[in-house]
Amino acid sequence: MEYVSAVPVPPSRADSASPARAAGGGGRRTLAAALLFGAVGAAVVLLASGQTWAEGHAAVGGGSVPLRATGQNVTGVPAALAIVGLAALVAVFAVRRAGRLLVSGLLALSGAGAALAAFLGADDSSALDEKAARTSGDAAETISGLTHTAWPYVTFAGGLLLLIAGLLALRFGAAWPAMGGRYERDGSPRARKPRPVKDPERPEELWKALDRGEDPTGV
């Protein structure tokens, strides 16, 4: 007759470690993706904001003068938010819990704001109209032959990358390590190293005892 034991068999160490290893691998992948998207997105926004977004001509006397407007001339919002996003990306690893959630939200909002500002400025002509008025000396003068480049949409794409980095941080940031957390992953304080026991028979200890006026040979 066979007997069935009621005592549950503990899972093997390999079986219990596999979910944790899988979670750690997923955390490292999302962390690397957020860092990549955030850094590249901020760099793209800053670079594209300094490029020419619109071109045209202003009538001066009997001729015309070519004028151009960069992204910074059209709107300074994307570049400013890219800097905020970079700071938030770094701050994500300096805070924990509610602070990390708040900073992750700021990162996502920076990307969304930069993308929206770039999209709205893609067809803007006000910056060139102001330049045309100053160049011609006529406040009613507007730009003519207006053309737009693709740089606003490149800026828009960079803002989206920042937004994705923020969304990844919001979703998976709780599993990411924090600065100084490498040695305290479980949140428990680190154990202090025991102080080395002094050997009174060592020569340096004997000399120290003589300097203190003690008899090192005494019991």
From TrEMBL:
Residue ranges with Basic and acidic residues bias: 196-219
Chain intervals for the UniProt region annotation (Disordered): 1-24, 182-219
Membrane found in the keyword field: yes
Leader sequence segment: none
Compositional bias segments (type: Low complexity): 1-22
Record flagged with keyword Plastid: no
Pfam assignment, any one: Trp_oprn_chp
UniProt keyword list: Membrane, Transmembrane, Transmembrane helix
Positions of transmembrane segments: 31-54, 74-94, 101-122, 150-170
Protein name in the entry: TIGR02234 family membrane protein
Phylogenetic classification of the source organism: Bacteria, Bacillati, Actinomycetota, Actinomycetes, Kitasatosporales
